[in-house]
Design brief:
- The complex is a heterodimer of chains A (327) and B (86).
- By secondary structure, chain A is an alpha/beta fold.
- Chain A has a single domain, classed as Glycerol-3-phosphate (1)-acyltransferase, CATH 3.40.1130.
- Chain A has helices spanning 14-24, 29-47, 50-62, 66-91, 103-110, 127-132, 150-161, 175-185, 232-239, 272-293, 309-326; strands at residues 97-101, 116-120, 140-145, 165-170, 189-193, 203-207, 226-230, 243-253, 256-264.
- With 86 residues, chain B is mainly α.
- Chain B is globular, with a radius of gyration of 12 Å.
- Chain B starts with a helix and ends with a helix.
- The chains are: A alpha/beta (327), B mainly alpha (86).
Chain lengths: 327, 86
């Protein structure tokens, strides 16, 4: 699956989601974890191209050997199954042990008049943050995919209603931009991911998980690790000169999560293009730090470092566009 | 109105870094978005929203208005003329 084809929706239909929530109200999540690891993941690994994508990620980006990469590919899929189960377990009313590192940064910003942004990524289980990092002073507006399944939207709304959080759905008519901008100028918090390109095709390229930091580089293809990140979140933040926190939630045990809240700094007096560069640099560095600490919790199941000729051409075209605007 | 259109074109060119686009080629009535016109996208809209606020004191908050306002430079100019605070 390529970046351009990403569906942006939780797997399964509404009936499956309802069934899963009902089941999780009665059984331990660990029973579900075991069932998924033994019977679901092996089938997924046979049928799904994500197997090759994640194997290459471990080989080329993390630098594991063949056997270790194969094993970690299985572990990665099991962990992804677990975080999906955990998401539905939360909908079913189950609680998790959650630790927060850097919560004071969040609290400090909620007390200020100005709005700010939370930037996340598709690692760990970000949705947990939405139910944990809560502010009485400021409403959080979370950017979500408009095409998400109704059952997920309904349950999110129910959970968010208790946490002073609203959702902004990404719309083709760009109306979400007005809502984001209004939220920030009204002093609210806007939360979005900044690792996948959605809506605008503009992007900014960064070295991400390059070979310089890979321990065992045995694969010739591992040289060069340019990855595309969406320009939008960084353009929005710098347009309004707001403060930014990177928020990533990593699974630390069967029933535990750790939330990492890290300020992303940039020089607000620098030329705009430089601000975007500095901010995206800070975001990518924090993402890399956590991916290296929790390599099995990387859940971007598409060619994040797309090297195929077709997409290289597309990237060249878009890079030129991006250069035009940001050089 | 003509002066406002010219100012807007210059400001949009600057904020979006459209250096290769001359003022003569910047058609006042051409669609700003999509393949037929200049080909701007959602991030460019955001830049123009911020521009209108900074230069003309106009705060656009109604998403329903957006599509009609950002149709072309002329529609932006008409909206600015009617709503400017600076």
């Amino acid at each position: 699956m390529t970046r351009q084809e990403w569906a942006g929706t939780t797997y399964g239909n509404e009936w499956m989601h309802r069934w899963l929530i009902r089941l999780l109200q009665h059984i331990d999540t660990r029973v579900m974890y075991a069932f998924v690891a033994l019977f679901v993941i092996p089938v997924c690994l046979i049928l799904n191209p994500s197997r090759g994508i994640i194997y290459r990620y471990f080989r080329q980006r993390i630098g594991y050997g063949r056997m270790k990469s194969a094993w970690k590919t299985y572990v990665n899929h099991c962990l992804f199954g677990q975080v999906v189960i955990d998401k539905f377990a939360m909908y079913a009313g189950k609680k998790f042990n959650i630790q927060i590192e850097g919560n004071e940064r969040f609290t400090e910003l909620t007390k200020q008049k100005e709005g700010f942004m939370l930037l996340s990524a598709h690692i760990g289980n970000y949705e947990i943050a939405g139910y944990t990092l809560v502010s009485k002073e400021k409403r959080i507006k979370a950017l979500v995919f408009a095409g998400e399944k109704a059952s997920v939207k309904r349950n999110r709304s129910k959970m968010f209603a208790e946490t002073n959080t609203d959702m902004i759905a990404i719309q083709p008519d760009m109306s979400h931009l007005f809502e984001i901008d209004k939220a920030l100028t009204d002093g609210e918090i806007v939360s979005m991911s900044a690792d996948r390109i959605n809506g605008s095709p503009k992007f900014i390229e960064h070295d991400f998980l390059g070979t310089s930091q890979v321990e065992h580089t045995s694969d010739a293809q591992s040289h060069g690790a340019k990855a595309k990140f969406p320009l939008g979140p960084f353009a929005i933040a710098t347009a309004r000169s707001v403060n930014i926190l990177a928020v990533n939630v990593m699974k630390s045990s069967l029933r535990g999560y750790k939330i990492y809240v890290t300020p992303l700094r940039y020089d607000k007096s620098a030329p705009r293009q430089e601000q975007i560069r500095q901010l995206s640099d800070a975001y990518v560095s924090e993402l890399e730090r956590l991916v290296r600490r929790y390599p099995t919790q990387w859940y971007n199941y598409f060619d994040f470092w797309d090297e195929s000729p077709k997409h290289s051409d597309e990237r060249t075209k878009l890079s030129a566009e991006s250069q035009r605007k940001h050089d | 109105m003509e002066q406002l259109i010219k100012d807007l074109k210059l400001q949009i060119k600057e904020v979006l870094n459209l250096e290769e686009l001359s003022l003569e080629d910047f058609d006042t009535d051409a669609p700003l978005f999509g393949d037929e016109g200049i080909g701007l996208d959602s991030i460019d809209v955001l830049e123009i929203i911020v521009l209108l606020e900074k230069e003309y004191g106009i705060r656009l908050a109604n998403p329903k208005e957006g599509k009609a306002i950002f149709k072309s430079v002329r529609t932006i100019a008409e909206y600015v003329q009617q709503n400017r605070k600076k």
